[in-house]
Amino acid sequence: MVAIIRNLRRKLREQSRPDKKRFRQAFIHNLATCRWEPHPLYSVFTQYDQEYYLERKEVFLHKYRGFYAVAKTIRPEKILEMGTSAGSSADAYLSASPEASYVGFDSFGKDVHRVHQTVWDPYQIATQLFDSRGFKNYKLIQTDLRTLDRLPDQSDFVVVDAGHDFENEYADLKLALTADPRFIFVDDADGEDGVSLAIERFLSEDVRGRVDYTVKIEYQGGGLVIKLKK
């Protein structure tokens, strides 16, 4: 019975997912009505290089609310994110889709907090953030993505936000496909030339003929939603 209910919910979710025009309209509405705020203790505004983000607070608040609106529009059942870091973006995705499960991948390398001169441990901070928000259904996997031939789970929504050079971006995009997603969301898609070239190659070679639509998301660094056909 539980399996039947889950399948019915999945079918209803798929049927209600928007086409490109309706996606844009829903995203604009979800962004305009978003009241999400970053966690007061665990966000980019408190992390080891917080000065950079605090100087551009409104710009980055808009960016993270964009993450929220993307997830609110897609309404994912399961989120896989490559490049979790300390969980700031996952906070926005999960706040918008609290019923979704989450798996985050990162090397979780430690750094020194430039203000407090203490060890900044992204794995520990992400765990504290998720627990503080009340997120229950999550898993953090410490790994080098280049050692993975495929992602360990299937997901309807995969976030690509790890390496920002051609080789790593392209490898991450191909790795995202192994989760059989309906949506791939690329953060910092308007970044350095290597990233743009990797996205262009991925769209023209790896998913050619499989793309339903793409939607650019305007914020610092830019985002790209890639909707794949069933």
Helix and strand string, N-terminal first?
HHHHEHEEEHEEHEHEE
Task: Supply the number of helical segments.
Answer: 8
Strands of the biggest beta sheet: in what spatial order?
5-2-1-6-7-9-8
In whole angstroms, how far apart are the ends?
Answer: 25 Å
Q: What is the radius of gyration computed over CA atoms, rounded to a whole number of angstroms?
A: 17 Å
Tell me the total number of β-strands: 9
- Counting helices, strands and paired strands, the structural category is alpha/beta
Q: Spans of 5+ residues with little confidence (pLDDT < 50)?
A: none
Question: How many structural domains can be distinguished in the coordinates?
Answer: 1
Give a description of the structure.
It is a single chain. With 230 residues, the chain is α/β, with parallel strands linked by helices. It has a single domain, classed as Vaccinia Virus protein VP39 (Rossmann fold, 3-Layer(aba) Sandwich), CATH 3.40.50.150. It is 43% helix and 18% strand. The protein has 8 helices and 9 strands. The chain has helices spanning 2-16, 20-32, 50-54, 57-74, 88-96, 122-133, 166-177, 193-206, and strands at 78-82, 101-106, 111-112, 119-120, 138-142, 157-160, 183-187, 211-217, 223-228. A 7-stranded mixed sheet has the order 5-2-1-6-7-9-8, sandwiched between helices. Helix 5 (88-96) links the parallel strand 1 (78-82) and strand 2. Helix 2 (20-32) packs across helix 4, helix 4 crosses helix 5 (88-96) and helix 7 runs parallel beside helix 8. The longest helix is centred in the first third of the chain and has 18 residues, at 57-74. The two termini are 25 Å apart. 40% of the residues are buried. The mean pLDDT is 93.
